[in-house]
Amino acid sequence: MKHQLNRIAFVLTGWLFAATAFGQGQSVSLNKIIAKVDNYYVLRSDLEEAMQSYVGQNQTPPSRCQLLESLVINKMMLAKADIDSVVVEEKMVDGELDTRMQYMISQFGSEKNIVEAYGKSLEMLKSELRQQVKDQKVVQKMQAKITSDVKVTPRDVRKFFDTIPKDSLPYMPADVEIGQIVRFAKPTKEQKEALRQRLLDIKKRVQNGEDFAKLAKEFSEDVGSAEKGGDLGFAKRGMMVAPFEGAALKLKPNEMSDVVESDFGLHLIQLLETRGAEYHARHILLRPDYNRLDLTTQTHFLDSLRKEIQVDSISFEKAAKEFSEDKTTADAGGLLRDAQSGSSRLAMDPSMDYALFSMLDTMKVGSISAPLPYRTEDGKSAMRLLYFKSKVAPHTADFRTDFEKLQTIVLQNKKNRAIDEWFRKSIADVYITVDPEFQSCRIFGTTQNSAARLGGGE
Fold first, then answer.
1. pTM for the whole structure
2. Segment 222-235, tens digit of pLDDT
3. pLDDT tens digit string along 198-251?
4. Which residues pair with 43 in a beta bridge?
5. pLDDT at site 8
6. Of 29, 57, 311, 384, which cross-links 374 as Cys (Cβ 3.0–4.6 Å)?
7. Which residues contact 92 (CB under 8 A, 6 or more apart)?
């Protein structure tokens, strides 16, 4: 079981370590291929980097075989994502890439220093890192898909805690509470009008006989539906954002809407059919180029708000509820919550959001950051204030104090088992080869029969 947990832990955090190594200027040399999963490769340098990542985090690394297995698992998820057509939006990749580049700039002091340190242009460095970021997002999406049905009850948590000998209770890492106030960049009237005109031109093309689905595949920036010709499937009333749903429900089957604006961008909607309280629609979504939006107004607003909070004219919590444009955190006074447990207490370790983890090193408890560039997962540009509300020091686990953490551990254990089961079922869908040097590693604990697909090195 310990081997299993270590293996999955690396699957979940290994990409972050790799990105951190990139940011610290560690070079990656192209060298011998030691494993292959369909068209994805594991290099010897990948294995060495993984080992050094643990050392750099002051952690004892797993064995080389465990690390190799973790790297193969990552590649297997990417290969299966290709087979299952699992994709991530390019704007999500751009947002994470921008975050990492901003972190690099903060570490090196300027873009010029980065260029001098690497001997490459900033665009070339971004190009090299981009595929790594995209692969990470795909792996995360595959993990979420595999474990979407996993649940945990309080009884599961109590049962787990009672099985731990009192003298073997885990030492819980530090956790923190963090708040944020977000202000999004706003597209100009000119930018909106340009998008509106593009959608109206597309609408005319459909009215003149062109296929809506084909045009959606070509132009829509909603990657998830674009590959299906913009098809969103059946939706119950209340599932979609109000502007979209309101426009869709006014249509007759096969009728197209005027251009509709929502928080996601601008839509051209076509209703396909209704069925009781459900409706079936497809759309073409266009969004502004968030890289070109001006954030000066948002920066000034947050800077002024920060000063008011610091002189106690308003509390951070009240300011977040009144002024933050991030709906997922505003109602909770800006507090960020763990996606799995829902807790406001976040483990302060490399599994934390990349930008937050890097920022906390420069902040004290009770402090509020200056306005910081922020990119949402769906690619929107924004500025935000971060509030380091509290921190709990590492301590021996206690059932009541650490219930949410224990719940997360139990949930992760269940997810690990779900992922293991997925591996056993999916291994036949990909072709894996491992260099003879590592044949003794017995990737996935393969037996004589199941190892038939694990060929020798190339």
1. 0.53
2. 877 888 899 998 88
3. 999 999 999 999 999 999 999 998 877 888 899 998 888 888 888 999 999 999
4. 33
5. 38
6. 384
7. 137, 377, 378, 379
Give me the residue label for tokens 């056993």.
424
What is the rounded end-to-end Cα distance, in angstroms, of the chain?
A: 32
Structural domains of the chain, with CATH: 2-151+399-455 (1.10.4030), 174-186+292-393 (3.10.50.40), 189-287 (3.10.50.40)
**Do the Cβ atoms of 30 and 43 come closer than 8 Å?**
yes
The first and second tokens of residue 94, run together, are 């751009």
Residue 224 structure tokens: 């998830």
- Residue type present at position 140: Q
Name residue, tokens 């409706």: 279
- Residue 348 has a CB neighbour count (10 Å cut-off) of 19
Secondary structure of residue 443 in the 3-state scheme: helix
* Helical (H) or strand (E) element with 416: helix 403-426
* H helix or E strand, kind and range, residue 79: helix 64-84
Pairing state of beta strands 175-184 and 346-347?
antiparallel
Q: Under DSSP, is residue 433 helix (H, G, I), strand (E, B) or coil?
A: strand
Give the C-alpha separation, 260 to 271, whole Å. 13
Q: Measured between alpha carbons, how far is residue 325 from residues 113, 266, 297, 376, 391 in Å? A: 35, 19, 14, 12, 26
More confident residue, 44 or 452: 44
DSSP string for residues in 292-305: G---HHHHHHHHHH
Residues 6+ apart with CB under 8 A from 227: 85, 87, 217
* DSSP symbol at 438: G
Residue type, 426: S
**Tokens at 91, concatenated:** 């704007």
Better pLDDT: 415 or 101: 415
How many angstroms separate the most distant Cα atoms in the chain? 75
Residue matched to tokens 């591996």: 423
Pairing of strands 432-434, 454-455: parallel
Check whether 348 has a pLDDT greater than 70. yes
Nearest to 396, CA basis, from 123, 213, 217, 172: 172
User: What is the rounded CA–CA span in Å between residue 208 and residue 114?
Assistant: 52
| DSSP assignment of 307-329 | HHHHTTSS-HHHHHHHH---HHH
Q: Which two tokens stand for residue 420?
A: 């293991």
Which residues, other chains included, contact 148 with Cβ-Cβ below 8 Å and sequence gap of 6+?
none
